[in-house]
Structure formats: C-alpha cells, structure tokens
Amino acid sequence: MTKKKDSMTQKNEAISTLSPKELLKKLPGREYLQGRDELRMPYAKLIRLLHDAFGSDGWKHEVVDVSSLHKTKNDDGTYEASYSICSSLTIHGVGTQQTVGTGFASKQQTQNEAIQMAMTSARSHALSQVACLFGDLTGNCLHDKETVEYLKTLPKPPKRKFDESMVFHHPST
C-alpha cells in the first residue's frame, strides 16, 4: 500500500510540474475513455479529467446561450424537443474557447421531460466540443485514427471497487 501511495504521489508531483499547455499535449488514459471499437470521452469522465489535470479551480465551464430549435407534440401523444447551447470553457493559464452543442429528445411522456433531456444532451455535447478545441488531453486526439488505435492497445484500468467507507452520510444519521 505504501509503494502505491508513493507511486501516486510521484505521479501527481510529476503532473503538477507540467504547465497547463504541456498537459493538454498528453493523451488521456483509458480510465477517461469509454468504448471498444469507437472510443469516446463521456461527460462525467471529461469532468473528472478536467478536475484531475487542472484542479477544481483550474477550469471553468459556462453556458453562454440556450436556444430552442423546436418543440413538438407527436400524433401518438409523445413529445420531442431540440435545443442548442453555446458554451464556453476556460482553462486557467491557457485561455477560453467557445462553441455550440446540440441535443435532441424524442418519445417523451411530457414536454418538460423532452425539453430537459434535449437541454442536458446539448450541454454535454457543447462541453465535449469545446474541450476538444484545447488539445489531445481533452478529447481532440479521438479524431485521429492512429491515436485511437494506440489508445485501444492500452490496458483498461481495473473496475472501481466500492465499500461503505466511500459513502458520505449526513452527520445527523
């Protein structure tokens, strides 16, 4: 256990010596990627990568504008909606980028469900798109076939093990 902590400490110290621009040239590890044939970086893993690489105060994501593209009630009584979201991502020490993401939801029981699902999808898409603009670490490398083939050869990290000590409980319980 001590060796692992020492190794992790050394790894974190090595990362902290890199500038944000140098970090963005690195490739993401398999723990941040999902998929077998086609690798992608899901929203939650992108957030974790940003926290791990730059710290919780080293980056900022903002929704700049939200636009409804369409909202429809279908003949079968279900709803669909489509939204676009313009978002901005700032990585301190590097700069700010801005782009648009789109989201669509169909066959929802209520109009609110369709709107919520479409907006969530658009927000995730916008963050993924704007993150790619910064470099390989934040997803741009996933557009290069040779890099993707290399990343597929990397071993997948072991599945995360959960136990009761990891659960946060309200102090009154």
UniProtKB/TrEMBL annotation:
SUPFAM superfamilies according to UniProt: dsRNA-binding domain-like
Record-stated family: Belongs to the RAD52 family.
GO terms under biological process: DNA recombination; double-strand break repair
Entry superkingdom: Eukaryota
Keywords: DNA damage, DNA repair
Family annotation (Pfam families): Rad52_Rad22
Protein name: Uncharacterized protein
Residue stretches in coiled coil: none
Keyword Repressor tagged: no
